[in-house]
Amino acid sequence: MNKIPNTFAKVYLVGAGPGDPGLMTLKGKQILEVADVVIYDALVGAEILAMINDQAERISAGKRRGHHCLSQSEITALLIKKAQEKKVIVRLKGGDPFVFGRGGEEMVDLIKAGIATEVVPGITSGIAAPAYSGIPLTHRDYSSSVTFVTGHQSAGDYRSQINWKAIAQGSQTIVIYMGIHNLASILRELTNAGLPPDTPIALIRWATLPHQEKLIGTFSSILGQMQEKKFKAPAIVVIGKTINLHSILAGHKD
Ligand SMILES: C[S@@+](CC[C@H](N)C(=O)[O-])C[C@H]1O[C@@H](n2cnc3c(N)ncnc32)[C@H](O)[C@@H]1O
């Protein structure tokens, strides 16, 4: 790990991983142990927060769909303010800060404000959720390409700027973050792009935690299964033939 400077403040954008505390990086944990301030997101679990040293100031930034505690500009302003007062500031985010985590935007703003920053990657939920469900993202017989894509567009107004046709035709495995709310529209787009109704699909909620919930189905069955099980976000959506391996691989992660 780079030596944490004593004389100048630094903001660390730290990935907390997907929930299982064992998936937090050693480097991220070491920084939490010496942090002066930790500003954390809603998806960061209690066991990760327990790694923060007792002296540190803890601030929840909230951020779940429709329930924002602090706006993005308020978070950036707070990071800049804390960097003027303290030395080791941690912005703790679920998964990886640079994967649908706005870490890039925050880092640009901090650098523009003249503040030293460093990103500490985390294991992203789009990799951990399928892994803990027995779903490889690639496999020499079934998939040689993966796309990570967001299913979230401005709430209540789903006008996708994603080229679903290109993704359907160019990628054998598709991993969708924030895709539950708009799943019906996304499936329509992918079906129009040529994916058949029996395409395998998996929905994984609370990946890597003991209370994980998982639905495995096909394009034609999954919306009914969701309704029946009252399946809710946040979850990762996986699409592709490697899902069929889950019956062999699930339960063999330990
Ligand atoms: C704003 S994105 C943040 C992604 C995060 N930076 C990452 O790398 O995992 C939030 C979305 O990530 C996914 N997600 C994050 N943590 C998850 C978990 N433990 N289980 C399932 N999905 C998760 C969900 O799709 C959720 O809506």
Task: Provide the descriptors you would attach to this structure in a database record.
Cobalt-precorrin-4 Transmethylase, domain 1; 5-stranded mixed sheet; 9 helices; 10 strands; disordered N terminus; binds S-adenosylmethionine
Percent in helix: 25-40%
Mean pLDDT: 91
Provide the structure class. alpha/beta
Largest sheet, spatial ordering of strands: 3-2-4-1-5
Strand content: 15-25%
Overall shape: it is elongated
Q: Which superfamily, in CATH terms, is the homologous superfamily of the largest domain?
A: Tetrapyrrole methylase, C-terminal domain
What small molecules does the structure contain? S-adenosylmethionine
Q: How would you characterize this protein structure?
A:
By secondary structure, the chain is an alpha/beta fold. It has 2 domains: 114 residues, Cobalt-precorrin-4 Transmethylase, domain 1 (3-Layer(aba) Sandwich); 124 residues, Tetrapyrrole methylase, C-terminal domain (Methyltransferase, Cobalt-precorrin-4 Transmethylase, Domain 2). It contains 9 helices and 10 strands. The strands form 2 sheets. A 5-stranded parallel sheet has the order 3-2-4-1-5, sandwiched between helices. Strands 6-7-10-8-9 form a 5-stranded mixed sheet, sandwiched between helices. Helix 2 links the parallel strand 2 and strand 3. Helix 6 crosses helix 7. The radius of gyration is 19 Å and the shape is elongated. 37% of the residues are buried. The N terminus is likely disordered. S-adenosylmethionine (SAM) binds next to helix 5, strand 8 and strand 10.
